[in-house]
Amino acid sequence: MIYDVLVGLFSRDMAIDLGTANTMVYVKGQGIILTEPSIVAVDRDTNEVLAVGKEAKAMLGRTPQNITAVRPLQDGVIADFEVTEKMLRHFLTKVHNRHTMIRPRIIIAIPSGGTEVEKRAVRDSAEQAGAREVFLVEEPMAAAIGAKLPIAEPSGNMIVDIGGGTTEVAVISLAGIVYSKSVRVGGNKLDQTIVNYIKKTYNVLIGEASAEMLKIKIGSAFPLKEELKTTVKGLDLVTGLPRMLELTSEEIRSALEEPLLVIIDTIKQVLEKTPPELVADIVDRGIVMAGGTSLLKGMEERLTDETQVPVNLSEDPLSCVVKGCGTMLDESADYLRKIVVR
Q1: Rounded distance between C-alpha atoms, residue 198 and residue 192, angstroms
Q2: How does pLDDT run across 193-237, given as a tens digit for each residue?
Q3: Pick the CATH number of 2-141+321-339 from 2.60.40.420, 3.40.50.620, 3.30.420.40, 3.20.20.80
Q4: Phi, psi of 71 (to 5 degrees)
Q5: Which of 38, 125, 159, 210 has the most beta carbons within 10 angstroms of its beta carbon?
């Protein structure tokens, strides 16, 4: 007992949003102190980690053959256990200023409906990286808490968390998830869709970073008051020479239609499965969006038009999940054990 108290005093308990696109770390009493891309650069010959986070992202598409920049998480789940562990260890060491003897208690958000194998992979990675105790919380619940929704009340709250790898849709009441659905469509899928569209339409190959730039700069889910244009550079697959293209927001919006329809259909399915009394609450309060991909231009208008329910963007969509997990750090271990994923 005394040991546990002392460890609690000297450790820096933290919350982690282990995302497909980015990893965010929240330290109790300090807030969010780390936001890094979930990317690791590895030497294929020696299996040595050369860079993590921002430094590794800068290497995407620019590495020699013996170095590969990889995303160890795909579609919201761990695709490479060993690399994920190394990435987590790097971030934990960075947060603790290299005091590796300090073993923190960690809360990690995971997609709803994850398999037992996926949950075990996340828990094992965190423990191997140096965690003292690991709690797993479903992302929609964490996002709802981070968005400051009144989840403990006997009324319906609907959260739509659109991240890099997954879209999580859930209805929450009385601090529990009434119904939820997760699809492996998010920001990365939108980027890949743009790459495929340009390749098919113009016979030009662009990189992942260029596709993301197009999505952020001129991508939209709903017609804009003033449509936009921008240029992008790529490799002409016919001539083998560099080529510059001018693209419009209309054609990028058209390219994104298929993955956007998957997200919209998921929201409609959750609404259909929700008890009528809670649907009435949702219509009154509106649907709340979180996650980086919810910032796509026109997303609120598109979802409102499709569902006929008011849709609002949360105050800080990028960090809703990690802030929700951070809020849970102030709760007792007994409370956490009641709401964590088994």
Answers
A1: 10
A2: 999 999 999 999 999 889 999 999 999 999 999 999 999 999 999
A3: 3.30.420.40
A4: -100, 110
A5: 159
